[in-house]
Write a structure and sequence with these properties.
about 140 residues, alpha+beta, Sufe protein. Chain: A, 3-stranded antiparallel sheet, 5 helices, 3 strands, about 45% helix, binds FE2/S2 (inorganic) cluster
Length: about 140
């Protein structure tokens, strides 16, 4: 039923836990099964320097959280924002159709954490710093 990758990530999940001083947190629940996932991100220079997750979900959710957080770690905010449940499922060598909503928890949770980060940052904008940064052209 499950691919070797799903089983491997379920048995040795990466990035499980919380980031106490995180820059954003996404809490999502699945309307299909009622299970939950929380994703924590730490952002440095516009990239996800660290990503952690916790889930009260099934084995497929544990594996999806593990794979999903691995996929976006080190990525820019823009890149990470594009993650989909399909990509997470493909990276796990597929999930049974009735388990696709579990991978959606991971993708949704990651995007929710980024949205939280962006809204927190938006609140800090205009604090009155005078110096302007010039972006290096490429
Ligand atoms: Fe709920 Fe998989 S059945 S997350």
């Amino acid at each position: 039923m499950y691919s070797d990758k799903v089983i491997e990530h379920f048995q040795n999940p990466r990035n499980v836990g919380e980031i106490p001083d995180c820059d954003g947190v996404g809490k999502v629940g699945s309307p299909v099964c009622g299970d939950m996932m929380e994703v924590y991100i730490k952002v440095v220079d516009g990239r996800l320097a660290d990503v952690k997750y916790k889930t009260f979900g099934c084995g497929a959710a544990v594996a999806s959280g593990s794979m999903g957080t691995e996929m976006v770690k080190g990525k820019t905010i823009e890149e990470a924002m594009k993650i989909t449940d399909q990509q997470v499922a493909e990276a796990l060598d597929g999930l049974p159709e009735e388990k696709m909503h579990c991978s959606n928890l991971a993708a949704d949770g990651i995007r929710a954490a980024i949205e939280d980060y962006l809204s927190r940052r938006g609140g800090k904008e205009g604090a009155g710093k005078g110096d302007s940064e010039v972006e290096g052209g490429g």
